[in-house]
Amino acid sequence: MSHSLTPFFEPRQVAVIGASAAEGKSGYVVVANMLANGYEGKIYPVNPRGGRILGLPVTRSVAELPEGIDVAVIILPAEQTVQALRECAARGIRHAVLLAGGFAEVDEGRARLQEELVDALRETGIRTLGPNTSGHTSTPFKFTSSLFPLGKIRPGKVSFIAQTGNFGTHTMKYILTGEHFGPARVIGLGNKIDVEESEALEYLGQDPETSAIIIYVESLKKPRRFLEVAREVTRRKPVVMLKGGATEAGRKAADAHTAAMGSEDRIVDGMLRQAGVVRIHEYTHLVLAAKAFSMLPPLQGNRVSFLAPSGAMLTVLSDYCTGHGLTIPDLQPETVRRLQEISPALIRMRNPVDIWPSCGVHGVEFGYREGMEAVLRDPNIDAVVPIIMLTRDIGVPSPDFIYDLARKYPEKPVLVAFSAAKECMDLYKDSLEPRGVPTYPDIEQPFETLSILARCRAALNRP
Amino acid sequence: MSHSLTPFFEPRQVAVIGASAAEGKSGYVVVANMLANGYEGKIYPVNPRGGRILGLPVTRSVAELPEGIDVAVIILPAEQTVQALRECAARGIRHAVLLAGGFAEVDEGRARLQEELVDALRETGIRTLGPNTSGHTSTPFKFTSSLFPLGKIRPGKVSFIAQTGNFGTHTMKYILTGEHFGPARVIGLGNKIDVEESEALEYLGQDPETSAIIIYVESLKKPRRFLEVAREVTRRKPVVMLKGGATEAGRKAADAHTAAMGSEDRIVDGMLRQAGVVRIHEYTHLVLAAKAFSMLPPLQGNRVSFLAPSGAMLTVLSDYCTGHGLTIPDLQPETVRRLQEISPALIRMRNPVDIWPSCGVHGVEFGYREGMEAVLRDPNIDAVVPIIMLTRDIGVPSPDFIYDLARKYPEKPVLVAFSAAKECMDLYKDSLEPRGVPTYPDIEQPFETLSILARCRAALNRP
């Protein structure tokens, strides 16, 4: 299957125009990232000074490049980018990534530079990402054009379309260092003079390496086309979007001119919903959603069971579920019987599950393990959230029992939250997440996550 | 200043009735916690077996206790608690903490046991916390009756009233291990047959050690009295409340019978707002609010400035502020001039502050330090949130410059969030928080916090 954007993500030969031997410069970092990711194609650094960069021989000009370069990554000041783009076209290169900023995002004078770029595209037919993008990533091809020192990017099955460089830079760095998942493809749109969100979504929709799509945009360049593509893609893959106010809207937001914005935003909201796009409203939820799609099986319904070490948590989280589209159904009689069996008689077991008395009698591992298994077996339940109380003075079981249960019931999402000692939570995270069981420091986060997943499921199954 | 509840929080002599020499038993943990906290009064463990517990000589019966015991902590099965309470009263003890569960929270048979307790209270006039409480804490007096292995409780200036044991047990353990603040007083209400939230609030309202009050309740025992007390206290100290559905309501919530609940809840909401109580809706926000009151100066207004390393964050967080009662005002001309001075000319500096280009030219520390100082000096700004991008490949400055700025502008809250490498965020947290500058792993959290603080300020200053 080939798409017009495929060459960006499966290049056999790339040129880095404006490559640099100076450590720390973007032209150096781009080459270093390609090497760190084990890119198996050929890299041609281009710099009039020649020599070597990170061991690779440098070509002095675009004209001297060999035939068959699939992608040119251009890291030159804005003023030189148009010329470089025309040279690339002349050399037969059909795809370019324009990493320089300094175009329309700055001011009107700069906008004219961007118009020159657009003219060059029209004349040459070259396809471009950017300008003002921080690059793109394709982990199935061990390739990235990111200008941020990311090092090796952990491969994954979720892809990002972002009208921000963050997912090629610092937010990706957070994901790689603070979480245990990674992306399939990342498409940093930048000023999107050519490739924009609807074509990117179409590409990811047919991409076998992408199982879910996370989008950050501040505007839709071709709204009608985007909705048309989304309507189709969202029947096969979950699509989650955070829409920031555009720059002007952000300023308006800051100035509290909210009324007009609000109504315009409601229209966008309705159109996205009709197209099956699940809208979120917090930046942090971009990462929560990506984490869920990276680690969890698809949610089959919105019926949740959770086990907590305190009545207050059971109460507060019941309130939370009710307000966020999740139900806490009654359990089957057999499940209740089993829960009652493992619990002191004083406690009347039901959903949600008051698990600590059982732990008090039988131990922490026994209580959570048997309690979780009882509700995981229950056909009334679609997802299970244990909130595990961990403190060394009481006893910290090996997290293996949770992994074993998640593997034994692979069709039901298990999301783990905690209470008590922070260092034990970290230990569980580092043990469970590399094995695909997500954990959360805040007790609301598993439910925020399930709420997003439930909306995605409704969108996938809409009539 | 003395209040009817003062003896609970300043006991000179305490008896632990049901103390145990068996490590791990509640009757052991209670004594161990008192010792771990350096309680300077006298502890009398009571157990018919006699001997020693944790080095302390054991008294065999309540009758054999000396004169002048201020508080009896009773850790006996529910069935024996009434008798013990009567014995305490006979021995002249006027205050008791009833740690046993197994009363009205279980079933109707058990409710009768609780009625016997109430009869005993009426007849003896003894004041009680509980039953079914996990204890109470008073760090100014180095005292706790918690039955959870907490060890040394870090002292602080925020107090908790909780109709849950969590703030004497696992949630407090999280605060002590995962955060860098602690409580002044913690009042675990339990089944509140005597001391309830309105008297507790009245006590904390006049307590010089308490500067802010965090409440978790599932019901108000004396709603009219509570609102009366709250109306008065909230003019002097912020009072934040999370109200969980009561047990039955929680069940209702789970069963999705939301309509009736919803309207009842709206009435509660209106009454609390009129009384100046700031209501929150997430369990995690109980900790966020406590952290803010523990570390930050009072917020003087809702005018925020923030500095972020990306336009998308500026945009998304502007949207967030607008939706949460915070404004992002224009900066004074002098501030804009200074920001422009430290930034490449291409960037048009304004509020919120696009700081990364400055960091690119002058270094990470220079950009954030000079940018933060510019907005901290601006009289249009009440609070500042730097979102600091940290990654070793670019350079991680010592966090001292942030501490120095927070100390130089002590009247303005500074809340620190991050992007990029997780281990650097942890380093900043561990460096800044013990010195009183709060940090947040998620970029929305400083704004959630400021939103709560802004509502508290409005409540304090209401007409």
Overall pLDDT of chain A: 94
Q: What class would the helix/strand composition of chain A place it in?
A: alpha/beta
Largest interface: chains, residues each: A-B, 78 and 79 residues
**Assembly of the depicted chains:** homodimer
Give me some keywords for this one.
17% strand, 17 helices, homodimer, 5-stranded parallel beta sheet, alpha/beta, 41% helix, 463 residues, 19 strands
What's the short version?
Chain A is an alpha/beta fold.
Explain what the structure shows.
Two copies of one chain form a homodimer. With 463 residues, chain A is α/β, with parallel strands linked by helices. The first copy, chain A, is built from 17 helices and 19 strands. Chain A has a seven-stranded mixed beta sheet with strand order 9-8-11-10-12-13-14, with helices on both faces. A five-stranded parallel beta sheet of chain A has the order 2-1-5-6-7, sandwiched between helices. Chain A has a five-stranded parallel beta sheet with strand order 16-15-17-18-19, sandwiched between helices. In chain A, strand 17, helix 15 and strand 18 form a beta-alpha-beta unit. In chain A, helix 10 packs across helix 17 and helix 13 crosses helix 14. Chains A and B meet through helix 5, helix 8, helix 11, strand 18 and helix 16 of A and helix 5, helix 8, helix 11, strand 18 and helix 16 of B.
